[in-house]
Known about the structure:
CATH topology: TIM Barrel
CATH architecture: Alpha-Beta Barrel
CATH class: Alpha Beta
Helix content: 25-40%
Number of strands: 7
Mean pLDDT: 90
Amino acid sequence: MEGNTSFYGLPLPERVHKWKKSVPESFRFCFKVPREITHIKRLVDAETELSQFLERMAPLSDNLGPFFLQFPRSFGPLYADILYAFISHLPLEFAFAVELRHPDFLGSAEYAKRIVDREVSMVITDTRPHVAKNPQSPERTPSYMGKNPIIRYIGLEDIKKNAPFLSQWASVCEHWLSVGCSPYFFAHTDTDEHAPEIARGLHLLCPSSPPAPCWISEGGQLELF
């Protein structure tokens, strides 16, 4: 599950413990690092905030997937050395992934390799369904994605129209699985009503992926927040 609440501030300790008790052993949370670190301080003198965040989320232990640092579009190559230095000191007991939105970062093998070499994975947000690009034209996926590549797919409410994009991502995910990676796929739509169905569709196209949890087709999504 992609956790957005942590982007806006630290969750209360009792809420973290509630999450831990509410999910099965196989469930994974992928929480965003607070915007205080990525957007306001832009990694400068942010060690205290990072330590507080990791300490707060640590009780989730084995239910933690990679935390991801999502940067604003204005966070460009001028910040590259700051980024490399920051991720070089991330604690190894946690997994991390980075989403870079500046155009000069997108699809760049050079930047991606330097990040992956520091044991950090990459995040890609795919918005092609909303900008009428040819679904057969691959999203600019860096050659280097790390052990836990994350896809954030911004899909369409019309389920059938997502099919060509999901087919393409299924091929990419199958390759990642074949080389020992553990990819994550998060689906979003305007209302998120059909997001679980889209994610389920991608999973069914990936025969190498782990077994899916029980599918709840009626009654709406479960709630943790």
